[in-house]
Structures are given as C-alpha cells and as structure tokens.
C-alpha cells in the first residue's frame, strides 16, 4: 500500500546521505520528489513487538519534521525514523511516553513493509496538514491532527497519552 504524503526529512538528513541510524531494522528509499522518500522494514516482527527505541532526539517546535511528545513539546528525531510516513492503516506505533516504536497490535510486520504510523496519534494540530492518499479502506482523508477529528474517527487507533488528554479536555 502506498503511504500518504510523508513528513520529509529535516534538511540535515535530506541534503546528505548520512550513515543509517537503524541499519539492521530499516532501509530508506530516498526520492528527489518532495515528500517521496520512505522507510521500509528489513525485519519480520510479531504484532506488538518493539521495533526501535527513540534515541538521539533534540528538543524541537511544531514543524513538519517534528513529533509531538506532550501538550506543548516536540522533538526532532534526528534518525532514519523521520522517514516513517503516515498511513490510516499504520504498521507502527510511535509511543512518545516510552520513547519506543512498536509494531501495531493488529498485525505482524514483514520485511519489505512500509514503515508508517498514524500522525494524529502523536500530533494534536499539525504544522502542515495534507490530503492523505494512503489507499486504506478507512482512509481519513484530510490529515491535520487529532484536534479536528471526531472521537469516532479516532476510535480503533492507538493514541499517545497527551492526545487522549487533549481529546478528553475538548469534550
């Protein structure tokens, strides 16, 4: 399944071909096309398994390259994980409280699978919303963060604690 418009790599990762940060776990397909690069699994893992720990981050601000970690906090991944694109049928979960990337609970990960996560699971309000083209049966269409999604649209997705808290405050 093709992934939706990904968060592109930060300029440091995009403009150079740095040494891979997870050479045993993923390969990056770089594309000169804007938002065309992506990450693909090199390993088979069972549903729910740990894919990678998130290390080497730096504090950031809301930007298309950052990941939200709390109500008002963001990080830059500074790793090949930045190439994990969005999908409405994701293969991974980015757990920002544990600083882990795990395989979704619903299905195992196979070598060659696109590495994707559901951006609203970490992002309350995205810096650069986009029209999703992931092709999933339950594609959510316009992706702008969890803030603009109904409880029904978010049902069934694993969500970070800060997203759950912000959603509950909205009620």
From TrEMBL:
The keyword Transferase applies. GO terms for biological process: methylation. Residues 1-30 are annotated as: Disordered. Keywords: Methyltransferase, Transferase. It comes from the Eukaryota. Coiled coil: none annotated. This is Post-SET domain-containing protein. It comes from Penicillium canariense. The lineage of its organism: Eukaryota, Fungi, Dikarya, Ascomycota, Pezizomycotina.
């Amino acid at each position: 399944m093709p992934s939706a418009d990904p968060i592109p790599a930060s300029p440091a990762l995009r403009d150079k071909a740095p040494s891979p940060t997870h050479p045993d776990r993923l390969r990056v397909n770089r594309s000169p096309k804007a938002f065309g690069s992506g990450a693909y699994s090199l390993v088979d893992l069972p549903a729910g398994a740990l894919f990678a720990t998130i290390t080497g981050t730096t504090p950031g601000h809301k930007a298309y390259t950052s990941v939200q970690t709390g109500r008002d906090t963001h990080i830059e991944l500074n790793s090949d994980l930045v190439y994990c694109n969005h999908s409405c049928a994701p293969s991974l979960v980015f757990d920002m409280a544990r600083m882990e990337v795990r395989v979704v609970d619903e299905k195992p990960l196979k070598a060659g699978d696109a590495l994707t996560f559901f951006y609203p699971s970490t992002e309350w309000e995205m810096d650069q919303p986009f029209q999703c083209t992931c092709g999933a049966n339950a594609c959510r269409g316009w992706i702008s963060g969890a803030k603009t999604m109904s409880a029904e649209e978010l049902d069934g997705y694993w969500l970070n604690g800060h997203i759950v808290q912000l959603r509950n405050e909205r009620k």
